[in-house]
Amino acid sequence: MNAEAAITQLLREIETYLAAFDHAGVRAVRDGLARWGNGPHKTLRPRTLPACGHLPVALAAMGKHSLAQAIEAALPHLRWITYDAYPRDEIGAAFADGHAFASLVGEGAFRDADDFDLGLFVIGPDILYRDHHHAAPELYAPLTGPHGWRFLPDKTFHTKPADEPVWNEPWAPHATLTGATPFLCIFGWTRDVSSPAKVIFTDEEKS
After folding, report:
1. Do 11 and 105 contact (CB within 8 A), yes or no?
2. Structure confidence at residue 205 (pLDDT)
3. 22-74 confidence digits (pLDDT tens)
4. How many domains in the chain?
């Protein structure tokens, strides 16, 4: 399957997956996908990163899901990068080296968009994505699980399964502690995508 066909099919499967959730944040992401996702296809040079090595395990954990099949078909065409707005000493080496994301719709993505970003995000197992916040409203739609989540710094992590969307309002603190299965999700930022995320220092990092 060529890149345009693979990305088109993947976006269709993402829309179908998200349509199952009656959730305000999901609706906001679907609105952006409807607006920008059918634009002209742009050619990107594929790129993999070490964290991409966790994708086969994550996809296997999804089972025979049509979305998993669409992701697998698109893998040879995806351009994975890391989020480099965090200073490495603030976000921690484990996360800095253990994550990757691939934008599908957004500035410089396969489908261009203005102040909107949607794609796939992977983190290796047993990694803390430290407490952080950002101006962009954000959807995580986890495709694997269980993983730990918290929404106030220094509080206890609560376990959430796969297929339970998480919506973060602007500047709302959040952190993720991945489980034994690699974390794979659909992410969506619906505005203020150029405003960088910032680490929130907690007593855990100070001790």
Report:
1. yes
2. 57
3. 999 999 999 999 999 999 999 999 999 999 999 999 999 999 999 999 999 99
4. 1
Rounded CA separation 45/182 (Å) = 25
CA atoms within 13 Å, Cβ hemisphere of 66 = 9
Tens-digit pLDDT profile for residues 83-138: 999 999 999 999 999 999 999 999 999 999 999 999 999 999 999 999 999 999 99
* Phi and psi, residue 114, nearest 5°: -105, 110
Say which CATH number the domain at 65 has. 2.60.120.10
Tell me the DSSP string of 21-84: ---HHHHHHHHHHHHHTTS-B-----B--GGGGGHHHHHHHH-S-HHHHHHHHHGGG-B-B---
- pLDDT bin (cut points 50, 70, 90) of residue 207 is very low
Which residue range is the domain that position 145 belongs to?
3-206
Please tell me the distance from the alpha carbon of residue 95 to that of residue 83, in angstroms, as a whole number.
10
Cα–Cα dist 112/36, whole Å: 7
Q: Within its chain, how far is the Cα of 50 from the centroid? A: 16
